[in-house]
Write a structure and sequence with these properties.
Layout lengths: L1 E4 L2 E4 L6 H8 L1 H8 L3 E4 L17 E6 L9
Parallel strand pairs: 1-4
Antiparallel strand pairs: 1-2, 3-4
Helix pairs in contact: 1-2
Length: 73
Amino acid sequence: MRIFVNATPLELPQGSSALDAITAFDAKEALGVRDGLRLITDSRGLPLDPSTVMSAGSILRVISARARPTDES
């Protein structure tokens, strides 16, 4: 099935996860996701769990996982 990561088309097997897609796109980015430094978002910019199963035509982006300020900040 064809999906897109950061506008790059990729062919992945059925049942692939979002993290599988990022790994196929760029192994370094996948490590960033695993380490909590990067986030996977859908085409609307909403965060996705790395275990989310992809469907044909899915659009993913990898973004920085910036720390959110606390109430004390």
